[in-house]
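Chapter summary example: a protein plus protoporphyrin IX containing FE.
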Amino acid sequence: MLSVHELDLPDLNLLEPGSLATKQTAVDDARSKHWLARNPFGYVALRYEDCVAILRDRRFHSAAGLITQMAGLPEDHPMNRDKRESILSMEGPGHDRLRRLAAPAFTPMAAEKLRPFMRSVVNELVDGFAADGRCELVREVCEPYPIPIICELLGAPKEDWRLFSLWATDLLAIFNGNLIEDGPRIMAARYALDDYIGALIERRRSTPADDLLTALIAAESQGDRLSSDELLMMSEAVLVAGTDTTRNQLACAVALFAEHPDQWRLLADEPSLAQRAVEESMRVLGAVRGTARFASTDIEYHDVVFPKGTLVFPSFISANFDDRVWTDPQNFDITKPSASQPHLTFGSGIHYCLGANLARAELQEALPILARRLPDLAVDGQITWKPTTVGIWGPEHLPLRFTPTG
Ligand code: HEM
């Protein structure tokens, strides 16, 4: 059987400069030739079916834990010394146990309870500029929006929102590709968040409340519970995985709607389309464009061997446009019926986004409010995009104009 290294494959280097459209064309073109492409680090899985199969194959492990190793940090660097395994990088029974214990705190019902709060946060942010007829959506809505939600979810009071915002910014620097320089502030934020959450855990142990931390403390399965260290890790994971993703996804969705004014009007008139609007915009312009796995052993798949250690990147931006799953995939239309399969922007398999219910609720609440309060939406100048190499992607600046409302 052939090793994957011997295959004749299309090359797909998405790190090279180029416009969004050029990159999407390159991905679509590669997918029409083969189910796999070669990139400078390994291989890109292009078709929906194979992306799902790889994400569900337990022999392919998450590459999230390789970030510090790939950055070449020395052994005694605090990020290696105090390395904490995150849910995103765990595998096997340890990961199953964590998911089993945490899942009840992330149900649709848990997200449902926060919807009125989400609406009030969005409305308050829009109040700040609705009468001006202009805004920079990233700074004025997307950046601030998820922080109060995560704080409310964890049970942290309003006066501490600013602290969480600062910690989130520093913790998220882990994805900036400059760990040698950013390491100290990342670790300082982790220690400060640990102290804060540690104290909150103590308070919740004696006085339970209606929040995620209380639910995680109480989570119990077959006599098993989360330890204090695991509670700290989960809180950090929620802050890191649950802020920048939602921000960027909201900005991506609005940028897409700004190009489709008819769809924006439709959503304003029929807020019940919110659910379809979220799924369709996440399919067409997802903030997470793919993920990374490595072969934990020699793996045979599709009559090809992936030698142990091989990196494989399931490409969501490719899978989400696969015409074996979607009819007319290039067309953004929030009224078309759902496809037989979900989009892959929340991933698939054991690492499927734990916060998907919450993220969906946040977007389903924000989009119809924005559609109603920012009518006749248009881009005011030019959108600047983050480089497509970042893990969580979207507009850097999204200047908009619209007909002023009260
Ligand atoms: C639109 C917003 C979001 C998107 C696009 C998104 C996307 C993803 C994706 C693709 C993964 C899997 C990564 C992989 O397989 O390598 C993931 C995992 C995860 N997400 Fe989200 N996410 C979003 C919002 C959230 C929110 C709001 C939370 C928390 C409240 C959250 C918490 C997590 C956690 C804890 C994991 C790790 C799960 C595990 O490894 O078992 N996410 N997310």
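Key point: Residues 62, 87-88, 99, 237-238, 241-242, 245-246, 249, 287-288, 291, 345-347, 351, 353-355, 358-359 surround protoporphyrin IX containing FE (CB under 6 Å).
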